[in-house]
């Protein structure tokens, strides 16, 4: 159990700070403070206008955070391009000088930053670059999964549509039902939460599907239900390759589709409009069928982000999506993952 402070200066919200909020909601370690001078003086629940994080203070800077006796600092943002904001460097150096380990989910590897790595060596602390890929290389072999196992992949209409959250909530629900299940992390936040996983967006494209296949096969040999965290979206102009590698590496038996209610375009790409939900669902099903036409993999339900809406408006939005797609839908954060698990069990003919 670590005692973590999260650095999210000026960016502690549901979108920019999704690494921070994910770790607060699902992480096993204790989060003792969040650094964001723009919201200092509140607790996490107040800053996010949510139920999570009550009693966790939001503080002005690393010096104030140190009074809560942390032993690690987590960089809690996932910015476009994954670079370190230079204005944060002094806070990292101060944390290292205080003996704190650094947990870094950015694309840039801080262990290769001479100033930071020299400081870490001097003070005997570690820098964990979460996105550092494994050294091994593996091309996908299209190997069948263990009979009786069920691989479920989360897909969606965009980045940041809750794919990790859905996978974690489904794993919780399956275990609540007494089923043998596991969560497979494929992104930096999921890896920090699970303390293992595969950073698929840092893997050479030739080997992504193969390394995904490897971890899925291993999980299928140990568990009956394998919930694979999705990344990106097939329709995303920047990140579609990572999604395709996951689809063909995981070879899912079924999929859950994630979407933010009201979204009309890809986030940050105002001219890239979203196709209809039915077309988006069809695209993901087609991508699996290219390799396995004789055994279709279907999207069996949808998980929606509705948190900006009042509860009744959220329920109305869910009903509209169900009418549009003919599939069950829910918001797993508000209403749980039971509906999704029921849909998976029914579709795959399991108890």
Description:
This protein is of the alpha/beta class. The chain has two domains: 3-129, NAD(P)-binding Rossmann-like Domain (Rossmann fold); 150-347, Rossmann fold, CATH 3.40.50. It has helices at 18-26, 44-48, 62-65, 89-97, 114-123, 163-176, 188-194, 205-222, 240-250, 277-289, 311-325, 332-335, 338-347; strands at residues 3-7, 30-35, 58-59, 72-75, 101-104, 127-129, 150-156, 181-184, 225-228, 254-260, 265-266, 269-273, 298-305, 329-330. The strands form three sheets. A six-stranded parallel sheet has the order 3-2-1-4-5-6, with helices on both faces. It has a six-stranded parallel sheet with strand order 8-9-7-10-13-14, with helices on both faces. The mean pLDDT is 96.
Features:
351 residues; alpha/beta; Rossmann fold; 6-stranded parallel β-sheet; 13 helices; 14 strands; globular
Classify the secondary structure makeup into a structural class. alpha/beta
The low-confidence parts are none
* Major beta-sheet overview: 6 strands, parallel
CATH homologous superfamily of the largest domain? P-loop containing nucleotide triphosphate hydrolases
In which range does the helix fraction lie?
25-40%
């Amino acid at each position: 159990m670590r005692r973590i402070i999260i650095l999210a200066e000026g960016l502690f919200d549901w979108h920019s700070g999704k690494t921070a909020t994910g770790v607060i909601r699902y992480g096993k370690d204790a989060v003792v403070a969040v650094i964001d001078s723009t919201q200092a003086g509140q607790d996490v629940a107040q800053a996010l206008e949510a139920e999570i994080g009550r009693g966790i203070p939001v503080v002005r800077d690393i010096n104030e955070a140190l009074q809560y006796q942390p032993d690690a600092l987590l960089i809690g943002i996932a910015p476009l391009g994954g670079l370190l904001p230079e204005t944060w460097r002094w806070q990292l150096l101060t944390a290292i000088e205080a003996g704190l380990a650094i947990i870094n989910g950015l694309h840039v590897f801080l262990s290769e930053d001479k100033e930071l790595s020299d400081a870490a060596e001097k003070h005997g602390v570690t820098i964990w670059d979460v996105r550092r890929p494994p050294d091994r290389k593996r091309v996908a072999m299209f190997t069948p999964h263990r009979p009786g196992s069920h691989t479920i992949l989360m897909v969606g209409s965009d980045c940041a549509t809750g794919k990790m959250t859905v996978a974690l909530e489904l794993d919780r629900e399956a275990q609540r039902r007494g089923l043998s299940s596991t969560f497979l992390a494929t992104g930096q936040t999921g890896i920090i939460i699970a303390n293992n996983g595969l950073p698929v967006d840092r893997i050479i494209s030739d080997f992504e599907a193969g390394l995904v296949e490897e971890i899925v096969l291993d999980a299928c040999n140990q568990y009956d239900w394998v919930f694979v965290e999705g990344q990106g979206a097939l329709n995303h102009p920047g990140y579609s390759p990572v999604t395709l590698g996951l689809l063909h590496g995981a070879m899912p038996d079924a999929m859950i589709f994630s979407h933010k209610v009201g979204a009309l375009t890809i986030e940050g790409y105002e001219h890239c409009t979203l196709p209809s939900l039915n077309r988006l669902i069809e695209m993901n099903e087609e991508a699996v069928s290219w390799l396995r036409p004789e055994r279709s993999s279907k999207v069996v339900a949808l998980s929606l982000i509705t948190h900006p809406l009042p509860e009744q408006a959220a329920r109305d939005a869910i009903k509209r999506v169900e009418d549009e797609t003919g599939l069950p839908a829910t918001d797993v954060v508000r209403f749980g993952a039971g509906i999704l698990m029921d849909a998976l069990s029914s579709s795959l003919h399991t108890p």
